[in-house]
Amino acid sequence: MLRLVALAVLLGASVTPSHAALVTFSASGANASDIQATVDSFRTALGALNPNVVGSLGTGRREINWDGVPDASSAPNILPPNFFNVNSPRGVLFSTPGTGFQVSANAATATPVEFGNINASYPGLFKTFSAQRLFTALGSNVIDVNFFVPGTATPAFTTGFGAVFSDVDLANTTSIQFFDLANVSLATVFAPSITGNETLSFVGGLFNAGEHVGRVRITSGNSALGSNESLPTADLVVMDDFIYAEPRAITAVPGPASLSLFLLGVLFIWGFRRSSSQSVSLRRVLR
Question: Are residues 164 and 29 part of one domain?
Fold first, then answer.
């Protein structure tokens, strides 16, 4: 029986998932060309770009570059938090402790570009990676991104997420934090800082050991948009492209503890039956 218990423990240990390995991609520069190679490497690691269709395609990646958002959902108007799951199905839902979200205006409109509608100095701070629009939360510098099977209300997970940021002045401030399906933090990656205005930074994280990311929290700088940037205390940062692995539906699977108990039970039943069979055989011999 001791051998059976030892075997069960070994089998239980063998199904415990290994610790996740996070691969980080990071770059910064004054121009889009300075971060392009790193962004493309992250894209390649995630897989082919998928069309913006309902349902999960299982592999590949989705992207949001904001440029196709219509004027009616751009500055000075508010972007609906479910726009990229309902209007354009890409499997994400935004939330913020602030007052909402905004995509910057197109130059063809009367509204100032690059959030000049919020503060006239901002076009001198920010620049685009993919022209012409940028993205920000309003009333906060924090955004949560939850994942769904694109175009549905079915919760989903991803395995990698990255974002382009503009005007990251302070180190270890602008970040992406990854959470698993139990809302436990997996890791935090920081966008690299760079001196000067109208700069670009990219950071992305890819999990390759079976971790499921159910939510990411993006912290852009340390202050919400509104006032003038007053370094070194206030760092105002906005976002451009989001790039992430295809959202996939969450399927229920037994955890390692449950599976270990199941295997232990099977082994005990097998051991009990074997012992009973041996007892019957012994009684027959004694007769």
Answer: yes
